[in-house]
Design brief:
The protein contains 8 helices and 6 strands; from the N terminus they run H-H-E-H-H-H-E-E-E-H-E-H-E-H. With 230 residues, it is an alpha+beta fold.
Amino acid sequence: MFAREKLDYSAIPLPDRADMDDAQMQAEAQAFLARMRTRHSVRDYTGRPVDRAVIEACIRAAGTAPSGANHQPWHFAAIAEPGLKARIRAEAEEEERRFYAGGAGDEWIKALEPIGTNAEKPHLTIAPWLIVVFAQRWGEFDDGTRYKNYYVPESVGIATGFLLAALHHAGLCTLTHTPNPMKFLNGALGRPASEKPTMIIAVGHPAADATVPSAAKIKKPFEVISSVFE
């Protein structure tokens, strides 16, 4: 990326270039759309293991995302160790119980009713992997001097989207989980104060009797989510 003593610009030829005709572009776009339409947030998992190499490849894909000033202000902690997953589940469920007991407010709880969620999070121990996403609020040079990161939420959000797409492309199911606050994750995973946990992603294969809420299949139409000016 960069060193403190050398912050200069140099250009290299574009290393990768797609050369598709219009028909190929349309076919690729439609194929990706069809693939992503089969992505579902899954809460019911089997204990079938997932090879570490698959998880690492998907995280590497997330690491290719664009970021403010190319600072890449993210860290992905991948967890398969049962004891650590159990600790994360216990602490997350404690926070969730406070959430559902009134901390969230009536309007938020009402909004969650069609999704069918509650304070119990068995997926956090059943799914073979958890990936905790951290946002790096500032970085440090080798001498400990801080430097500012830019557009951190946007950058981490884009990288997380890359990660979810990569995991789905690898044939895996995911569930994003955002207990709040999540400060316990820094201590549990040995991450510095400069990093803020933003999300826990459960990753694995769906159980034979896995279900999804019918409301989750209702997507806003294109005319609502997009405006085209041609």
